[in-house]
Each structure stands twice: as C-alpha cells, then as structure tokens.
Design goal:
The protein is of the alpha/beta class. It has 14 helices and 17 strands. The strands form three sheets. Strands 1, 2, 3, 4, 5, 15, 16 and 17 form an eight-stranded mixed β-sheet that branches. A seven-stranded parallel β-sheet has the order 8-9-10-11-12-13-14. The radius of gyration is 20 Å and the shape is globular. The structure holds N-(iminomethyl)-L-glutamic acid (NIG).
Length: 387
C-alpha cells in the first residue's frame, strides 16, 4: 500500500455499499491507496502505508468532476461583464471576441493560459474535467485547441458549432456543411465528444442535429448546449439524439422534464452562468423529483461564467436551484461522472481513481454554509497531491 489518507472525520464515498445513505458516508475512516487507485476504505488508524496524510478529523469528499468547461482560450471580456452588470443582455455574439484573441494566440500562450486555469481548478477541488473547443472555428484552430485540451483530459469536446464565424456571416447552413465535411474530420481524432450551441443567435435544431449526427457517425458521443437563454428545442433534441448531457437547462417546461426523466441524458446545470449573466435560476428540485439524473458544472469560460469555483456552484445550487447539500455534492461528483459516462471517477469505492479532496471543514455542508470561503485544503489526483 503506497498511501493512506487517515483520521478522516467524515468521509463521503458516494458508494452506498460502503457507508450510509446515497453518499455512502463513513465516520472516522481512512482511504487506502495503491498507485492511482483506491484499494480499501478502512477504519481510522488501522492501516500502515509508505506515506500517510493526516486529515485530522476533517471531511474528505470525492474530487469534483467538472463536466462542462471551455478552458482553452485567450483574451479577456471583463468589460463585457461590467456592461452586463450595468444592464446589457448576454448574447451569443460575444463569443467572436474570444475567437479573434484565440486565433491570434500561439500554441505556447494557449497552453500556458489553460495550464494556469487547470491549476486554479485543482485548487478548487476539481480532479477530472471536460474541455471544449469552440473558440477557433476553423479546421486548423479547432484541432489545435482540442490537441491542447488533450494535455489535460481525454474528455475533449469538439464545439465547432459554437457560433457562426465571421467568414460565414449570414451563411449558417454553409458553415454547418463545411463543419461536417472539413472541420469535423480534422477535429475528431482529438475529441471524445461533439457538442453544439442550440440557441437563438447560434444554431437551430436542424443544424445542431446535423452536427451531432455527423459527430456520432465518426464515433464521438453527443452533448448539447440547450435552453440557456430562453426556452427552445435543445433539451428535446439532446434526448432525441441520445446525448450524454443537456447543458444549461435554465428554461425547462414540463415536456422537457418528462423527456429528461425518461432518458439517459443528464440535465447539467451551470448555476455560475445564470449568476454571471443575470438569468433566472432553473428549478432543479422539479427535475430531481421527476427522476432525471442531474449534474452541476462550472462552465468556466471568458464570456458567461469565468470561474473554476465548484464551491460557488454548490452554494448557488442549494440556495437558488433548491437542491439539498447532499444532492449538490452528488451532482458535482457522481453526477459529473455520469454526464461524461465515466465510472472510474466521482466516487471513492474500491477500484476508483484516487481523486479526492480534503476540506478544511468538518462537513461538506460547509461548502454552502460558508459561502466564498476557500475550504479546499488538499486535492489528490490519481493519488498525487496537487494543491
Ligand atoms: O456555455 N453558451 C455558449 N457557450 C458558453 C459561453 C461562451 C462565451 O460567451 O464565450 C456557455 O455559456
């Protein structure tokens, strides 16, 4: 045994066979790690190992799984944010500002910027994440951003259908054809997923369907930006196409909720986006009570949600989306894993990756109870301490 995280006051495993309730909670516990994986959950003080981390009675949770980010980009949109807080609406068109800056940046600049954001995310307790392209919007720049994303995760997502680029102004259908025939084949070797922004000002349902189906035909899994800025066909389309996740879900009607509940598509809420764009918050309570699977992600991006703070997302989810602290913790860990169709992360059962967070708190409830306070004391990724 190479490592034991010992003297854990409250351990969340998300494995009901190991502990109490859906969170699989154990008191006075130890996580035993060999190499990159959990090999045992034991009572505190009972295991000898090469190395020992003393949690000193604090709470340990599975690392956060952030299933929706746009970490690879250059430029800054702080002025756009300030204007929004002064009353301007959020619109999809702002994406083009970041496209200009990203195209102009060198590979080294993009790698440095993404590395800085990945370190920040690790300090926030994020141990696994998805990264989308979508700020290149040429075959070359999309493939480049995905290759850079692959430095950090295998869960890279081709989002060429983020917005129509200036070269195709007024010719969205031509862009979708170009995307399908030229961009997608160049991007697919560097991606696991394909995504599209189904929204007024971005792409309509037929265009999104063509993009997702073309990606699926090349072996990519589907995901969709759905119902972010108003009610639309996105959620129904995500379910129709068997997408792993419908992301945003800010505007949901009864049919959307019923469709999600009857499907394997995870409803992924991005509450920091609703915060940063002054949108209403969705009612996650109705979605959970209907029986749908839910996740929470940061949506870290320069336009609508420039944060890596999963703790902020949890606090908003509890206060404004009407989740319980237990549901919010599950949504940011096992929910994120489900949205990425992964079973190796999001829990601390035997065989799981040793991705965990030691909180400077006796309970995960403090993530909500102490809003804005940095409570992540240590992040372990694959058994290695990162922060
Ligand atoms: O998920 N909605 C589309 N894409 C991002 C925002 C991108 C931007 O504004 O730069 C999102 O919110």
């Amino acid at each position: 045994v190479s490592l034991v995280v010992d003297r854990i006051g409250l351990l969340v495993t998300n494995d009901p066979t190991i502990g109490d309730g859906p969170l699989g909670v154990r008191r006075d516990a130890a996580v035993v790690i060999d190499g990159e994986h959990v090999v045992e959950i034991a009572d505190a003080g009972t295991i000898a190992a090469d190395e020992r981390i003393d949690a000193d009675g604090r709470c340990v949770i599975p690392g956060f799984v952030d299933s929706h980010t746009h970490l690879v980009f250059a430029g800054d949109r702080g002025d756009e944010f300030a204007a929004r807080m002064a009353g301007a609406p959020y619109a999809a068109g702002g994406i083009r500002t970041t496209v200009d800056a990203t195209r102009a940046a060198s590979d080294d600049e993009l790698i440095d910027l993404a590395s800085m954001r990945r370190r920040e995310a690790a300090r926030a307790g994020i141990t696994a994440l998805e990264i989308k392209s979508g700020y290149g919007l040429t075959a070359h720049d999309e493939a480049r951003c995905l290759r850079i994303g692959r430095w950090f995760t295998n869960d890279t997502t081709f989002l060429g259908a983020h917005v129509v680029p200036p070269e195709f102004d007024g010719r969205a259908d031509d862009y979708v054809t170009h995307l399908r025939d030229v961009m997608l084949p160049a991007a697919a070797p560097h991606a696991r997923w394909v995504d599209a922004f189904c929204e007024r000002g971005a792409f309509d349902a037929d265009q999104c369907r063509a993009v997702i189906r073309a990606g699926q035909a090349l072996g990519l899994g589907g995901r969709l930006h759905a119902n972010q800025l108003g009610h639309g066909p996105g959620v129904a389309l995500a379910v129709e196409l068997g997408c792993a996740s419908a992301d945003h879900c800010t505007y949901l009607d009864d049919d959307d909720i019923a469709a999600l509940a009857g499907s394997d598509t995870v409803a992924t809420f991005l509450p920091a986006t609703d915060f940063s764009t002054r949108q209403p918050y969705p009612d996650a309570r109705r979605v959970i009570d209907a029986g749908a699977s839910v996740a929470i992600a940061t949506n870290c991006n320069p336009g609508s949600s420039y944060t890596t703070s999963m703790s902020l997302c949890i606090a908003l989810a509890v206060r404004d989306l009407r989740m319980t602290p237990d549901e919010a913790l599950l949504a940011t860990t096992s929910g994120g894993a489900r949205a990425l169709r992964r079973t190796d992360v999001g829990h601390l059962g035997v065989g799981a990756r040793a991705d965990l967070v030691v909180l400077d708190a006796p309970s995960y409830t403090h993530l909500v109870y102490r809003p804005g306070v940095p409570l992540v004391a240590m992040t372990l990724v694959g058994g290695l301490a990162l922060a």
